[in-house]
Amino acid sequence: MNSYTATCCLLLLCVATGCDTVTVTEPIGDAESISEVRKLQGTWINDDKDSMIIHVSQDGGATIGILTWDEETEKFRADNVKLFATKAGDLRLLHTTSTGESSNDEYLFCRYEHADEKTIRLYYPVPSRFEKAVQSGMLDGVVKKRRRSTTTKLKTTGERLVTFLAQTDGNDCFEQKPSMTLSLVKRSE
């Protein structure tokens, strides 16, 4: 997996072929407070030592900047991806559009927690949990199985999805061990 894709895991989940993914049509829950979003601001490195910068604007909107080396063109490539932080019950969630564009109607998401002031742990959704919920009719959505991957697109939104997460002890819908850990390199103002 190249460093851009690994970094996009912060941006929530691997989109590369061979990865099972879960998407939603809108961020789950209520927008986090600006003070909570500001805790994400800074330069971070992930487990693979890829770096990213999260910038929070005056209105609380967050953007992740990623600089990666492109072997093919032998140039650095800069990417900007919108990040949305929400809270659904006791769960804190991060969302990004699957393409990084804010006009997209599919969002990747993961649960996150602050282990301390300099560490964020990310927990990816358990795709099979959401796939079963769609297949049983508990949630509205579409499950697309490919040769090496499955994509579950949830169409259930709002309170119904928050209720599902609460009824299933939302943590059970996400990996039990951190899928990725981000370590703060530098806090930006």
Description:
With 189 residues, the protein is an alpha+beta fold. The protein is built from four helices and twelve strands. It has helices at residues 3-8, 34-38, 127-135, 158-167; strands at 21-24, 30-31, 42-45, 51-56, 62-70, 75-88, 91-97, 107-116, 119-123, 141-145, 150-154, 180-186. It has an eight-stranded antiparallel β-barrel. The model is unreliable at 1-18 (pLDDT under 50).
- Describe the sheet with the most strands: 8 strands, antiparallel, barrel
The overall pLDDT average reads 85
Q: What value does the Rg take, in angstroms?
A: 16 Å
Q: Strand tally, please?
A: 12
- Provide the structure class: alpha+beta
What is the end-to-end distance? 32 Å
Low-confidence runs (pLDDT<50, min 5 residues)? 1-18
Number of helices in the DSSP assignment: 4
- Give the overall shape, derived from the CA principal axes: globular
Strand percentage lies at 35-45%
The largest sheet has its strands arranged as 3-4-5-6-7-8-9-12
Helix-strand string: HEEHEEEEEEEHEEHE
Query: What is the helix fraction of residues, given as a range?
Result: 10-25%
